[in-house]
Task: inverse folding
């Protein structure tokens, strides 16, 4: 009897220990995985799901990178072989290990018409339907790998120097980047030729970033969610009939608060210390 | 050379498979493309690792049909052909841990084996389940974040980078830490294949009559508890943890061990 009691106690102790150590391992493992997930400024292949879903879906097989690497068109102007755009993140790249990405200043996306990297994706992390046009054909112009952003202070066109390198490098010439003319008040007789990126057209391929002549590119690609803001649904464009429709069902709200006795300036200075 | 037959066959298989994967990226071959996570055989047949597939499913993502079909094909293959044959005939980490094991024997480290109370061989099953839970909580295939198997394979195909540190760590752990520490205690992929291959057909068979009890098989076996029947009973090694590596057959001087097809009818 005493023996079986002992056995039972031992069984409970070892079970408890196993469960406890597993929980400890789980905490460490979760913490580590969550940290290495956080690499926000990463550019993904065309058609990639939003980063959070992409990290769930990507099975890290590398088929996209292999398809990208083995293009006959991967040649420099002098005929020498150039590496493919997509790289597979390895230790030290500081991006989720084993996932595909690209660095625009090294090799930007050359926007192949047949998009070899996407149909080979077995998991659905690269979403082919998102790249189909009305005729159900693959259309690389529908991809949104990122969004080009111009840093005015380092862009020499904003200094008044004539440069349209990004404008000419853009595969969607005069659509994704247009040149805006502005009077140069400093000289009084010249024009600024300013690059303007149109976020509804820009695919984020990075050819502009690669072409930029400044020491550090003055135009660069950021992931769309990091390069865009959001006004919020409570701002309604009163001059836009279509936007107005969003609030056609809205009901009037009556507030019953008493009118404040205080001055407006009291309210504005509330909770502020100088 | 007789006692190297299966060892050499395994190395040839492992290296050939890695070379085909390497060539897919470097030269555009269409024999075996991708990595273990998900591959394409001869440009057509999808293959996928069952445990990786489970991790992605655990995140709540609805996977593409190619991966699901691929995982089914691989599962059925190992279910029939021989359980953890993946571990000893395909996995590149096997070469690292085999080297560590061989060195352990040469350096006599085995004699001074420390008893790791917390690290039992069944830990891998806990890790396997834990990997799925962590995948669900964090929202990414959790074992793939640190799997030395795919880190090594991708390293060979796409370049190692700092990932080589993981491979060295596994080597040091197996050499100076726990004997068969990675493959025999921790690896959840091996655990998955142990479960898949429980009923597989190709098995090591033991002939008690021929055995001289030299115990060479138990020395080289990475999972030597599966050889409990040696010099006791003439039965097959039916434990799913046997990797079908065939090292025991290689080292046996008495022809007491050999591969055989499992029969499910009782004698």
Result:
């Amino acid at each position: 009897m005493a023996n079986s009691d002992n056995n039972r106690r031992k069984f409970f102790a070892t079970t408890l220990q196993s469960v406890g150590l597993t929980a400890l391992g789980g905490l460490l493992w979760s913490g580590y995985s969550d940290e290495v997930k956080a690499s926000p400024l990463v550019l993904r292949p065309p058609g990639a799901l939003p980063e959070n879903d992409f990290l769930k879906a990507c099975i890290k097989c590398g088929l996209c990178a292999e398809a990208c690497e083995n293009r006959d068109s991967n040649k420099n102007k002098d005929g020498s072989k150039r590496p493919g755009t997509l790289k597979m993140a390895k230790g030290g790249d500081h991006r989720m290990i084993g996932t595909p990405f690209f660095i625009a200043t090294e090799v930007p996306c050359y926007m192949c018409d047949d998009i070899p990297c996407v149909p080979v994706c077995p998991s659905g992390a690269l979403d082919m339907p998102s790249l189909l046009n009305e005729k159900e054909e693959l259309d690389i112009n529908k991809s949104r790998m990122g969004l080009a952003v111009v840093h005015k202070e380092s862009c020499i066109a904003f200094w008044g120097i004539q440069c349209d390198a990004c404008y000419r490098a853009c595969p969607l010439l005069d659509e994704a980047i247009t040149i805006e003319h502005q009077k140069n008040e400093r000289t009084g007789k010249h024009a600024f030729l300013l690059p303007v990126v149109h976020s509804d057209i820009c695919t984020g391929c990075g050819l502009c970033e690669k072409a930029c002549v400044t020491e550090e590119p003055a135009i660069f690609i950021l992931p769309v969610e990091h390069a865009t803001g959001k006004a919020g649904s409570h701002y309604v464009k009163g001059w836009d009939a279509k936007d107005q429709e969003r609030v056609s069902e809205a009901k009037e709200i009556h507030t019953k608060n008493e009118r404040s006795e205080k001055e407006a300036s009291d309210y504005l200075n509330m909770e502020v210390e100088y | 050379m007789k006692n190297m037959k299966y060892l050499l066959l395994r190395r040839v298989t492992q290296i050939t498979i890695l070379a085909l994967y390497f060539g897919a990226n470097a030269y555009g071959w269409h024999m075996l493309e991708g990595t273990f996570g998900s591959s394409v055989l001869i440009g057509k047949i999808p293959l996928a690792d069952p445990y990786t597939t489970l991790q992605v499913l655990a995140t709540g993502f609805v996977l593409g049909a190619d991966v699901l079909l691929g995982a089914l094909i691989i599962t059925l293959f190992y279910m029939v052909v021989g359980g953890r044959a993946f571990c000893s005939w395909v996995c590149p980490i096997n070469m690292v841990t085999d080297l560590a094991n061989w060195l352990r024997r040469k350096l006599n480290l085995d004699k001074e084996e420390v008893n790791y109370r917390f690290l039992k061989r069944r830990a891998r099953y806990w890790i396997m389940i834990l990997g799925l839970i962590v995948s669900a909580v964090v929202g990414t295939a959790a074992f793939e974040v640190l799997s030395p198997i795919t880190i090594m394979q991708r390293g060979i195909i796409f370049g190692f980078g700092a990932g080589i540190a993981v491979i060295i760590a596994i080597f040091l752990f197996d050499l100076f830490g726990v004997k068969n520490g990675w493959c025999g205690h921790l690896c959840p992929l091996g655990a998955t294949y142990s479960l898949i291959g429980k009923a597989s057909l190709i098995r090591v068979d033991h002939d008690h009559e021929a055995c001289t009890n030299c115990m060479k098989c138990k020395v080289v076996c990475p999972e030597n508890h599966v050889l409990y029947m040696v010099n006791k009973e003439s039965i097959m090694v039916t434990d799913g943890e046997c990797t079908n590596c065939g090292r025991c057959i290689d080292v046996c001087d008495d022809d007491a061990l050999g591969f055989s097809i499992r029969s499910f009818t009782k004698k």
